[in-house]
Amino acid sequence: MKAKLILMMLILAVQFIFAQTAELKGDKVNNKVIKSENEWKKILSPEEYKVLREKGTECAFAGAYIHNPEKGVYECKACGNTLFSSEKKYDSGSGWPSYRTPFSEESVELKIDHSLGMVRTEVICKRCDSHLGHVFTDGPEPTGLRYCINSLALKFKKSK
After folding, report:
1. Candidates 76, 79, 128, 148; catalytic one
2. pTM over 0.70
3. 113-139 average pLDDT score
4. Which residue among 8, 11, 89, 123 has its CA within the 20 to 30 Å range from the CA of 49?
């Protein structure tokens, strides 16, 4: 019993050390991309950093993907996680690319956002915790959802 406890503590200690080392190197831990803010600043443009890491919003109707007619998938600009498919994209008239559903359960995470004196639902990348935009309940059927996403948070990968 004592040996099992010591072994368990040793395993936890090694996992903790690995996680700390991975964080310092900007590696993936449990499929999470962990980087320091300085590392993010090195790989993102100032505009991308403001949206993805500081929860900014690009101007309406100014994004590169609002009227993109190409077929493919939209990935997280910060980590490459597949977020949305062009098959679920639609023109909401909001000024930002809009989607009915994420690509998969591993794509995004939702969090309550109390900023700007209102309550909204923030959409973040499930792999790197970058801010993507917000989801609203005024979308088309069958979901009734509108994932309103900043183009600066996305990278488009055209289907072959």
Report:
1. 148
2. yes
3. 95
4. 89
